């Protein structure tokens, strides 16, 4: 018997590239609203070829086969590239791995889960999947740092965390923009998605005391600058993100060295450094793991190792991200962020 | 530049001047002199304005866009207006000579040159930290006349300024 | 050649020999400003995590950052005149210095935030425009820049208030109106007790550090800000403020005894501000030492 997927934010995209070609399913995406889904589909699938026709339909409006109907429409429920929270597959990449090529690997119980839960089995280009995850980390980090402006460690540090926090927020938003989000879709992405759909790094849950915040800042700045380097040559905005994050990285390194060397703080710092670096293995763990993510991870490890203090427990290889991380840090960030917003109609705020 | 190439370049749209004359909301300088205006063009009754923010996180983007729209609506009513932010391409070198003057009068210097006090022109200046009150600014103090001022620049602009920050807060 | 103010008073640069009372007066003005920037930003910082969109949040964060930046500037000016910056917050905690009445309150809602910010910000701009004419030139230059940056936040406050008035429901618009009526008397009081009769005897006025009187500033500010709220479509109760045919403003006189009590620590958020600053210094002192010790 057919069942209807419950995730109302997932849209399926169909495209026809010429009047003679068939209308094909080209991917799925997650968007907060219909107009955002349309915008995103155009951005994601319409860039490479001139599209003759584009259809975007909410998945819950589809009648989709259940496990009992396997063999009829198996490819449609599989969609291994899909991932909560973000569009990941561009047209050019799909041509290398057409839908029909993947063997069915449906779980025995078709109702167990909609999206594929095995990131190692997911397809799609790694950077395209890594960016949205890092944008989530940057958003939460930016908010936390903003609150630190008035923590008055000293005046210069207030201005540092404020600048780094503002830039973290702006980078998060810029990343979404570069992935086709307009401003209101970006707001919906950060302010309206339920926590289960977030896939922040495990380091986000550690954003508490100052030494842990410093180490979180360090590993996130290192990861973002490493990934931005990949695209810095062809997109000035990524080059700017890289440059700005390198300034942040330098700032956090100064702190790391200071806290490690100062007798009064070295013990709590060492503990924070150990714990946060141990959590940082998933910074590049949002997508399939391949030679590229391993190489990015190695560069991250080199940057963290280069901070001049021993004791990093960063895993040797990327660790997959999991849903449901972030703990009370993420929960508070999301809950507080909705307090005003919930009382107004969508798209009211600049 | 040879003549044919110059002839092939269309003259800038007259509306470019309208946009260039819009004043920055935070500092008393025009967008044109600040080097923020990239281009203004008209297609099918629509005006497309390309602007380069000094930083990705420039908080004045909203207000700048509002002012640009308002100025264009006054100068050329009835057109659709699209504002495109070209991120990551602004450079200190884009500030015009008039921009340098206006910024100096307002208490700012531009990154990329050895900083001098905008008020007394002295070079006995110290950096007062790596980050300023806004993301585009680095704070300095003039030891000659005692005036605080800011250097406007891009990410890592402190790296191009060979000035040690001998002034650290506290003791 | 020494420069002079409009009143014909001599002006001073950092290294000029200057009378002790000018040096001390300028140090006190800059110190008071630094403290009020640092503590005065707390009511706004409390709303950072509730700012309802990416743009609003970035703008609010930029505002909070900028105010602290102004505190940094004022602290540097004060430091040059002999006030160690570390003492600014410590003196506040130990009761040797006070913050303005308006910072002893919190915002009750996002709807109140807009008009409150608009009133406070515009009044501060008038203060800065006046003080920047003072005889200690480095401080005057710093204030001129700060005043210009405040004008940017003024636009932000105006836009934010307009947004809520335009898109809010009747209840939300009512809260904007109430916010205006709540904050107007507080900001009238912030500009200081009446001094038309006594200004000439005020030593800070005589030596050129306080160029204008409180009443003068209050009148100029009302002329500017009341039409702004009227243009936003809000009702200005004549009992709160009304302009006489002469152009002069009549306003509900603040209860100065109450204002004094609030400044002394009797405001609804007075303790909250002190607790925050004390907590921040307590939990961070060792980190500050670490940075200083190694750097």
List the helices and strands and how they pair.
The complex is a heterotrimer of chains A (350), B (171) and C (295).
Chain A: E1 10-16, E2 24-30, H1 34-45, E3 53-58, H2 74-78, H3 91-94, H4 126-147, H5 155-178, H6 183-191, H7 210-231, H8 236-261, H9 263-279, H10 291-305, H11 327-341
Antiparallel strand pairs in A: 1-2, 1-3
Helix pairs in contact in A: 4-5, 4-7, 5-8, 7-8, 7-9, 7-10, 8-9
Chain B: H1 3-8, H2 15-20, H3 31-34, E1 37-43, E2 46-51, H4 61-75, E3 80-85, H5 97-105, E4 108-110, E5 125-127, E6 137-142, E7 148-152, H6 157-160
Parallel strand pairs in B: 2-3, 4-7
Antiparallel strand pairs in B: 1-2, 5-6, 6-7
Chain C: H1 20-40, H2 42-45, H3 54-80, H4 86-93, H5 110-131, H6 137-167, H7 170-190, H8 203-206, H9 214-231, E1 241-243, E2 249-251, H10 256-266, H11 270-294
Helix pairs in contact in C: 1-3, 3-6, 5-6, 5-7, 5-9
Give structural notes.
The complex is a heterotrimer of chains A (350), B (171) and C (295). Chain A has two domains: 10-91, no CATH class; 126-340, Ferritin, core subunit, four-helix bundle (Ferritin), CATH 1.20.1260. Chain A contains eleven helices and three strands. Chain A has helices at residues 34-45, 74-78, 91-94, 126-147, 155-178, 183-191, 210-231, 236-261, 263-279, 291-305, 327-341; strands at residues 10-16, 24-30, 53-58. In chain A, helix 5 (155-178) runs antiparallel to helix 8 (236-261) and helix 7 (210-231) runs antiparallel to helix 8. Chain A is globular. Chain B has two domains: 3-85, GMP Synthetase, Chain A, domain 3; 107-160, no CATH class. Helices cover 26% and strands 21% of the residues of chain B. In chain B, the strands form two sheets. A four-stranded mixed sheet of chain B has the order 4-7-6-5. A three-stranded mixed sheet of chain B has the order 1-2-3. In chain B, a hairpin with a 5-residue loop joins strand 6 and strand 7 (148-152). Chain C has a single domain (20-193, 200-294), classed as Ferritin, CATH 1.20.1260.10. Chain C has a two-stranded antiparallel ribbon. In chain C, strand 1 and strand 2 (249-251) form a beta hairpin. Chains A and C meet through helix 4, helix 5, helix 6, helix 8 and helix 11 of A and helix 3, helix 6 and helix 11 of C.
